[in-house]
Amino acid sequence: MSGLMLPEKIQPRSIIVKMFTMLPFSQKKSQSWSTANSEQSRFPVLLLAKKLSKVSISTFVIYWMILVLHNAFLGPLSNIPGPRILKFFSRLFVLRREPPGTNFKKLKEWQNQYGRVVRIGPNTIAISNKHMLQQVLLHDDLPKGPAYRRIEKLGNTMFFTDDKLLHRKLRRIISPAFSTKYIKSLEPYILSSNKSFLKRIDNDIKKCKCNVSRNERYGIVDIWKVLNYLMLDIIGETAFGQSFGLLENNDHVVPRTIAQTLETISYISASPIFGLIKAAISFSDVRTANNKMQEFMKSIIMERLHGGDEVHRNDILQILIDSQKAHNIQDKLTADAIAQETIVFLIAGSETTSGTIGFALIELLKNPQKLNLLRDEIDQIKLEQEQALLCHHQLKNLPYLNGVINETMRLNFIAPGGIERKVDTDMVLGGHLFVPEGTIVQCNIHAVQRDPDYWPKPNEFIPERWLAGSDIPADHEAFFPFSAGSRICIGNAFALHEMRVTLANLIKSYDIVAIPEELQASDERRAFVTMSLKYKRFMVQMKRREQ
Ligand code: HEM
């Protein structure tokens, strides 16, 4: 055995002792060991390293503190007003105590308290001056900020990328799918989904056990939910090549999986601990659903890619598939890229549109005289023989309908937490404010669209401001419902088309009466990604109108 003994100098115990003595917290303990001092004296290099490590850690901490203090009080953003704590910490850290989904309210409060430019983080500012917003979004066209990268796991898509070249390329390939002419060719899908929508409402009214007054055939309908189903089904029809059938069956693996993933991402960013626990609990369900969704999408895309003329269909998906025919390899989208872009259409194009129609209905029910004005305008249009639903060409120029939609989007901006941009080279904002490269700019469109200097009676629903010759004309320079610049919503004309057709046919077909408690609850808003109702439902009484 003795032959196997290591020399005392490199016995395992002595090595452990040496490692311990190098750690700063073990100082006291190591001194109590009789061997420690003699070990150190025999290894002066160790002693030196120990001292050096202490010095370098302290130097780093002091250097870091000086940097933080300098950035807070002497840096280029130091003169911008804002809550003191946000000079040092990110607002996400400070806002952890707010109820999840309500950060946008705090942002608006800060903007009211400190002005149109507020410092909301060590290197982040929020702006709500219309000229500055025009500059950031339109003229300087700054790239997207880092928040988008958190969701980029869904793929490096047109929506999320901050790479200007990649964005330009994707936008060029995808734009034809959203041209006015192409959208017109998609109208049959929008109308057939609207037919299913009205059928679903009729069924819900019929099924409703709690008719308010059976004689009048009113029923209670969760209009928030069915509107969401309708918009998902339209995206299914136009971007996935087939309806999800939600209006008939209430469930489909694709929207369910995406909703679960988005919910988890938004919880993780709003409250990391709670979000991670939630993610861990639902992990296996989400993975199974995710696999099913991938299979579903792969089969659709492969069928279109290899099915030839027989499976050709005039829809958004076809435009992406047709990119395969491009001569330049750069202009072809891979099957994966096609799948990712269609998922993004589902995310960007369903809750946004259904939410806006839902908010329009809420505003109209709060202002019944405006609902009557809208109905009068819509009733002027007569359905032609064999025509079941009003079509877009009959609606697109109706002034009051467009006023209602614009005013709804003004009051209920879809991303009230702001849209984020990153300063890519030093700039002067609004002609006087130096903003260094790397600064994050939160464009607070929600605040601009409710600013009393731009909008008299800013919190009132006044569709009349959008009519020609109005006493309180709308300020078009302070209106950004679809953003502006190169990243303006690519689906804006498509969304307006869907919203006009759906809202007009809904108002034409039904008498809708508010339920007071529901109307009151609808004031409670939450915004994880898009603005929504806290309880994600809005019950109304509905009955078919006598035509
Ligand atoms: C009322 C409905 C809608 C509203 C209010 C809305 C609003 C917006 C806004 C504000 C942006 C800019 C986001 C940013 O810069 O961070 C955006 C971008 C986008 N939207 Fe919409 N949207 C709506 C409907 C739609 C629809 C129906 C689609 C597609 C089917 C769509 C697809 C997109 C895409 C792909 C982008 C990214 C464009 C790019 O970065 O080039 N949106 N939308």
Features:
alpha+beta; disordered N terminus; single chain; 547 residues; 8% strand; three-stranded antiparallel sheet; binds protoporphyrin IX containing FE
Please summarize what this structure is.
Its cofactor is heme. This protein is α+β, with helices and mostly antiparallel strands.
Q: What would you note in describing this structure?
A:
- The protein is α+β, with helices and mostly antiparallel strands and 547 residues long.
- Helices cover 54% and strands 8% of the residues.
- The protein has 24 helices and eleven strands.
- It has helices spanning 12-22, 27-32, 34-42, 44-73, 91-94, 103-114, 130-139, 147-151, 164-174, 180-185, 187-207, 223-239, 246-249, 253-270, 272-306, 316-322, 335-349, 351-366, 368-379, 392-395, 399-411, 445-448, 492-509, 516-521, and strands spanning 117-121, 124-127, 219-222, 419-422, 427-429, 433-435, 440-443, 510-514, 525-527, 531-533, 539-544.
- A four-stranded mixed sheet has the order 1-2-7-4, sandwiched between helices.
- A hairpin with a 3-residue loop joins strand 5 (427-429) and strand 6.
- The longest helix is centred in the middle third of the chain and has 35 residues, at 272-306.
- The chain starts with 11 loop residues before the first helix and ends with a strand.
- The relative contact order is 0.13.
- The model is unreliable at 1-36 (pLDDT under 50).
- The structure holds protoporphyrin IX containing FE.
